[in-house]
Model the fold of this input.
Amino acid sequence: MKQVADILSKKKRLDFWEVWVKKQATSPRRIALMIKKKEELADHDTLTEVLNRRGFLNYLSLVAQLLCRSDQKMALMFVDIDKLKKINDTKGHSAGDKLIVHVAECLKNSIRVSDFIGRWGGDEFIVVLTGAQDRETIAKIIKRTILCLTRATSITIGVAFWDKKKNPLTLIEVTDQAMYKAKKAGRGKVFFVNEG
Done:
């Protein structure tokens, strides 16, 4: 009897949601808004509200194509949160999530309007700095980010400058390797490659 009741209640819920969706999608404007929201959710990380890997790669590819047509420069920063695993293990995953959100907020508040951020993985972010031609420009952004983080955590950063001959995926790999070189030198370090 209970299984029959469960099946009927599931069917009622499905019927309810089907009717609700049809009511919501009656106007073209509502349909467009629902599609836009779905696309936003597909391209953004739900925890930090920055681009997820899929959205980041799409946006980076588009920006690289646009920059190829001009003399604009670009650099990538590969950011790794130091000791996140230890925080998750000792203080719990909610503390780790709060730290990830805090780092994302610090990065958002430190970059310029023309720059953008993607969450690459659990404790990794990639920042695209358009128009960044030299180490000094990037150093200012890094300094603002570190000041924002204060005592919350340290971050390790790899930086690579874009060359029009490189495709975006190669640039990501180079920047990732730079971050690992910085980590080998000790946490909280920055490593620059292929300047100019």
